[in-house]
Automatic annotation (TrEMBL):
It comes from Leishmania panamensis. The chain crosses the membrane at residues 310-331, 391-412, 418-437, 495-521, 533-558. Keywords: ATP-binding, Hydrolase, Membrane, Nucleotide-binding, Transmembrane, Transmembrane helix, Transport. It is an enzyme of class 3 (hydrolase). CDD domains: ABC_6TM_ABCC_D1 (cd18579). The lineage of its organism: Eukaryota, Discoba, Euglenozoa, Kinetoplastea, Metakinetoplastina. Residues 191-222 are annotated as: Disordered. This is p-glycoprotein e, putative.
Length: 636
């Protein structure tokens, strides 16, 4: 790490580091000095607060790069065991040699690693899948099925649909690609002991599913667990696991405070209503019993005690409302601060990892069409930004459904079966919202594609403007550009219509739901007291959140998954090795078309034999004559 990133820059302790956990972290008292300096116009650039140590680009990038290095080591855990004896879990009689470990692109499973095995004794095919394995275990039987023609277990000679994987060593062997989870390493035992173990059913594979953790008698060390593919998502979760846990606690605090507000408001309104009804009732009772002096004294004392108790309860309800609002405000502001800090840390870490990968990526990886300079620029500008936006809505995916369930339960306790109206409207509108969101995402992609095609066509037109002028093709190109623009505007119009429908649904459905619930509750004949109506309105307002969030969540997560696949594909590419760089440096420009290059070599050959000319030059008789040299000895 330090050879690529260098030593850690020095870090000076700031006022935020010296602030306390309560006043400094929650009330931000350390900003007071900065605000006073700014008010006096004494705040300079060197006195501005710098990023904290764990959020700096260097520290965040090194932490993420170290986790990716650990994943890379896990990905290549079996590379040192190429040439070892292996078998498959469902067939103890299988015996082969491990030749290759990696992902097969032609199988269409980029997140699954396969082991290329050269079999001396080919395994029987497993039939029935998961259900078949369970039935065979219950019946103590082994099943067989025909060898598949494509996919894992299919026979080949080191190539799968034109993709070269590895070369066979022997000619009379069978080559297959098996999942790494299904492969185990054989122990080297004497022949008699091995036969006895096979006869008694005590082979390393057996019926267990964890064949990757056996022990090899050849090396005397434990075989590592099966390798796994690299994943930037797992790396980010591992690096930010404590920050994500803190965000979860803060978000839960915000949602709980939001749900407690209608309950505290209901209690406060009931106290106000009871205090307003008590004096009138007591005055009526005192007018009817004014003749007895003893009862008057008792009623006055009871009135004083009830007034003191009601005052304390009212004061407690006000303090409760204030405390809930204070806790929610503190938790929400701290949540926003932690989200922004971690989002910028993720952006800096991913940008540094992509930049570092550009310095050490193998040249053969850059031959892939998708790994061009424009793609790498988009990785930093677009994909990293999508990861940053996902962090804002990460915990809302968990808390919003829970909040909706609790809100519906509280509505049912308050108004009974009338809460079913909100549930029905929610269930009917959410599928429509999802469909509109998918249409929005599809039309966004169409607009981007059409815009890119139009801009590319205009660039080609401008680059060849001289030829266009010479051939008088201006009208043809003008009509083509106008047609492409009209198609693009139609896509923009469709996108705007869907956006308007989505906005209309998000704004009108909650209002109509609230009106329908209130009207239905009024038709039941129950009292419309403020202690009931205001908490109901507050709870119905919480049901607006799914309509506001669902449209954003689907688009954010769709872009996040695409960005993670692109970033993982780039960061999981092989690094340049020293011998590859040396070979590229030794090969001169004259030997680019040669199949072999000999440097500083003495060759003793037989008589040179002229080779027949190519078919394309036989008729003309022109061209160079090539000779075949059959070497006796080669001294290098």
């Amino acid at each position: 790490m330090h050879s690529l990133y260098g030593a850690e820059p020095s870090y000076a302790v700031q006022a935020e580091d010296r602030s306390g956990w309560i006043f400094g972290a929650l009330f931000y008292t350390w900003i007071g000095d900065l605000m006073q300096r700014a008010a006096r116009e004494e705040l300079s650039a060197d006195r501005l607060p710098h990023p904290m140590r764990e959020y700096r680009a260097y520290n965040a990038g090194v932490a993420l790069a170290a986790e990716l290095q650990r994943q890379r080591a896990r990905r290549h855990a079996w590379d040192g065991y190429v040439g070892a004896r292996v078998g498959v879990l469902w067939d103890d009689a299988s015996d082969g040699v491990l030749r290759w470990v990696g992902a097969v692109q032609q199988y269409g499973t980029p997140q699954q690693l396969y082991a290329g095995v050269e079999w001396r004794v080919a395994p029987s095919r497993r039939c029935g899948g998961w259900a078949g394995r369970c039935m065979r275990r219950l019946l103590c039987r082994r099943g067989r099925s025909p060898v598949p023609e494509h996919g894992p277990g299919a026979y080949h000679r080191g190539e799968v649909d034109g993709e070269h994987l590895f070369d066979p060593v022997e000619d009379d062997t069978v080559l297959t690609c098996e999942r790494v989870e299904d492969v185990f390493f054989w122990r080297e035992k004497p022949e008699g002991e091995a036969r006895g173990a096979s006869a008694t059913g005590e082979g390393p594979g057996g019926d267990s599913e964890g064949g990757g953790g056996g022990t090899s008698a050849e090396s005397g060390i434990g075989i590592p667990a099966p390798p796994t593919c690299m994943s930037v998502t797992r790396a980010l979760i591992h690096v930010l696991r404590w920050q994500l846990l803190l965000l979860g606690l803060l978000r839960v605090t915000v949602e709980v405070s939001t749900l407690l507000t209608p309950m505290a408001l209901s209690w406060y309104l009931r106290l106000l209503q009871s205090s307003a009804d008590t004096p009138s009732a007591e005055s009526a009772s005192s007018g009817a019993s004014s003749a007895a002096a003893t009862s008057s004294e008792l009623s006055s004392s009871a009135e004083g005690e009830s007034m003191r108790g009601g005052a304390w309860q009212t004061l407690a309800s006000v303090l409760l409302l204030f405390s809930i609002a204070l806790v929610r405000s503190l938790a929400l502001q701290k949540y926003i601060q932690v989200v922004h800090r971690n989002a910028y840390a993720i952006r800096s870490a991913l940008s540094s990892c992509v930049t570092a990968k550009c310095l050490c990526i193998a040249s053969r990886e850059l031959r892939r069409p998708e790994l061009n300079p424009g793609r790498i620029v988009n990785l930093i500008s677009t994909d990293v930004a999508s990861v940053e936006s996902t962090l804002y809505v990460l915990w809302m995916t968990v808390t919003v459904p829970l909040q909706v369930c609790v809100t519906v339960f509280l509505l049912y306790r308050s108004i009974g079966q009338m809460a079913g109206i909100s549930i029905v409207v929610l269930l009917l509108s959410l599928p429509v919202q999802v469909v509109l969101t998918r249409m929005t995402y599809a039309y966004t992609l169409d607009m981007a594609k059409l815009s890119d095609a139009r801009i590319r066509f205009v660039n080609e037109f401008l680059s060849g403007i001289r030829s266009v002028k010479f051939m008088s093709l201006e009208d043809i190109f003008e009509r083509e550009i106008d047609e492409r623009r009209r198609v693009e505007l139609r896509a923009v119009r469709r996108f705007q219509l869907v956006s308007i429908a989505t906005s209309l649904l998000s704004q009108c459905v909650p209002t109509c739901t609230t009106a329908a619930v209130i009207v239905a509750y009024y038709r039941t004949g129950k009292p419309m007291s403020p202690a009931v109506i205001y908490p109901i309105l507050s709870l119905l307002g919480l049901l607006d959140i799914p309509f506001e969030v669902i449209a954003n969540l689907i688009g954010v997560y769709a872009q996040f998954l695409v960005s993670m696949r692109r970033l993982t594909s780039f960061l999981a590419a092989d690094d340049a090795q020293a011998h590859d760089i040396l070979e590229e440096a030794l090969v001169s420009g004259e030997g680019d078309d040669a199949s072999a290059v000999l440097c500083n070599a003495t060759v003793s050959t037989y008589k040179a034999v002229p080779l027949p000319p190519p078919r394309s030059r036989r008729s003309s008789g022109e061209g160079d004559t090539h000779y075949e040299l059959r070497a006796k000895t080669v001294l290098v």
